[in-house]
Structure formats: C-alpha cells, structure tokens
Amino acid sequence: MNASEFRRRGKEMVDYMANYMEGIEGRQVYPDVEPGYLRPLIPAAAPQEPDTFEDIINDVEKIIMPGVTHWHSPYFFAYFPTASSYPAMLADMLCGAIGCIGFSWAASPACTELETVMMDWLGKMLELPKAFLNEKAGEGGGVIQGSASEATLVALLAARTKVIHRLQAASPELTQAAIMEKLVAYSSDQAIQMVATLGTTTCCSFDNLLEVGPICNKEDIWLHVDAAYAGSAFICPEFRHLLNGVEFADSFNFNPHKWLLVNFDCSAMWVKKRTDLTGAFRLDPTYLKHSHQDSGLITDYRGSNKVNEALLQRINSAKKIHLVPCHLRDKFVLRFAICSRTVESAHVQRAWEHIKELAADVLRAERE
C-alpha cells in the first residue's frame, strides 16, 4: 500500500468507523456465537496472496462483527465503562503514524514531556494535593500505566523496594530474603487487584500490618488508592487512627479510559515522590543512556571506549542520523540498526559517509 492508496483507504476506514458508531444501537449488543465459531470461517493458514481492501472490509462485517461484544452500545451495562470519542480515534491514528516508543526522554522528548505536563493538568483538574504534581521542581509526578491493576502492581513493587532499602540501610545485617518474608500487603475486601505475583508478600488485614513487629512499622506503609472500594480502608474512619493523622495516600490512580473519552489503555497514576518509582524500576542498559538523563530537567520512569563515546556524541549532536550504543563485552560499540521499512542502500551509504567524516574529525582531535 503506497501513500496514495493509504489516503483513499484511510478515508474509507473513517467512513466505516463513523457508520459503525452511528449505527451501533442497531447491532445486537452481545454476540450469538459459540466458542470456536471463527476458525471454520477463515483459512487454516495465512494466504499466499493478499486480499483486496474491499474483501477485508466485507470479512469484518461477515466474520468479525458477529462475534463482537459492542462495548459502546447504549445497551451495554456489563463490566465497566470504556471511553471513546472521535478526537481520541484521530489521536490514535496520529500516534500510529509517528510510532515512537517512549521508553526514555531521548527516545522521543515530546512523548515524555507531553505526558508529564498533561498529567499535571489532569492532577489539577482532580484537585490532587500539590505533592502529586511534577511542576516547579516538585518531587511528585504522574505517569500513564496500562491499567489500574498495573498501577497497583507498580505501587506495591515500589513500596516493597523502598522498605527493603530503608531497612537494610538501618540494619545492614538484614538480608532481602529476611525482610521479604515479613512484608505484607493490605487490600480492601472489595479490591479486585490481588497481587499474587509478589511471592512472599501476602494480603492481610491492616491491623496485622502493624503487628508484625519492628520489621514493619508505620513508616513502611505505602497507601495506594486506585478505586472507590480499593481505597476504602484508607478513607474509612475506623482505620484512620492507625495512621496518626496521615491524610493522603502515597500514590493515586484512576482510569481516563473509563471516564474521560480516551481510548483504552490510559490509566493515570500519580506518586508523591517519583524517585520511589524510578529507584525501584530504574534500568541502565547502555542503549538507553543519554546526555540529559542526569540533568534533573526530565523524569525517567524506568529506571568505555572514549573515542567511540566522543564519536557517538558528535553523531547525535549533528542530528543527521541517530544512533545508540551498547556494550559488547568490554567494548563500547555504536549500534547501527536498520529500523525504517523505507530504508534503501543509498540511505545506508550516506550514513556511512557521515560516520566516516565525523570519525576522522574525532581521531584528528585525539592526535592533537
């Protein structure tokens, strides 16, 4: 599919989507199919030749739609709301075209910075305490997760890591295993985000959390609020006396993809101290490092050979091509990966000439 056909088919797809949304009330909300209905209706193996666009759209109507539960139907009252809107659909199209992977600031600066600013906007709309905001050098901040369950898991893992580090700093003789076997996780009996993947961490009552002795005390409690019931123990008066006046959780989460006309998946999570997250999940593979990561101006929620390092600096400063490094055993190596589907040999050759020119400059500077 070339750009010309993409323009034509894209317009047809927008028409199909608009017709679907406008006519969704007339579709049966829950499908009348049995398990395994789909397999007999499609080939047993991928076709050798492509279908026409028209045939694909026809198959969507004949094969796919009969098995779709229409979550946006006005007769859908199951599970939970799923937000959607025409602007969100258009935004998805733009995101698909740009196609950046925002795993660090350097991977796409606008991706990281827009998320940071928008999460501050949303936090202000919710009237969250200022401690949860990133602006004006605040210690807090927001980050988008895939779901509330994911945010809950992230909060528990971050809390666990924070407690382990604090206790080991105070008592170096304590091993991680010794601390882990004492840790507990509290959850409301209405919460569905039960984290069974934490191994020795178990669910218990809040009172038990405070009875495990010196290994776990009120300083070790991280409160995460992710829904009306999941956070009920935090807001219930009978539990407040255990917190000695603590008024806010350490993290807060809700799902814009349920309430704010944003397509799935967009789960907004804020923390009072973002270093609790970056400290628990920070990763430092060589290819993710960049010159601004320690500047203090950006938030990264993940977590040599001097000549080659100098060459990489020059290449990325020139901005004609973009490379990242890796470590191959003890060598600092510049990675040259063919990434775009539109790359031709001429692009590679021009890049190689550019690299050679900059390498010559680096070697000349070294000799001088």
Summarize the structure.
This protein is of the alpha/beta class. It is 40% helix and 9% strand.
CATH fourth-tier homologous superfamily of the largest domain: Type I PLP-dependent aspartate aminotransferase-like (Major domain)
CATH class of the largest domain: Alpha Beta
How much strand content do the residues show? Answer: 5-15%
Which stretches are poorly predicted, pLDDT < 50 over at least 5 residues? 190-218, 227-248
What is the succession of H and E elements? Answer: HHHHEHHEEHEHHEHEHHEEH
Structural class: alpha/beta
User: Spatial order of the strands in the main sheet?
Assistant: 1-6-5-4
Supply Rg: 26 Å
| CATH topology title of the largest domain | Aspartate Aminotransferase, domain 2
Mean pLDDT rating: 76
- CATH level-two architecture of the largest domain: 3-Layer(aba) Sandwich
The dominant shape is extended
Tally of DSSP helical segments: 13
The domain tally reads 3
Q: Give a short account of the largest sheet.
A: 4 strands, mixed
**Euclidean distance between termini CA atoms:** 53 Å
Number of strands: 8
Fraction in helix: 40-55%
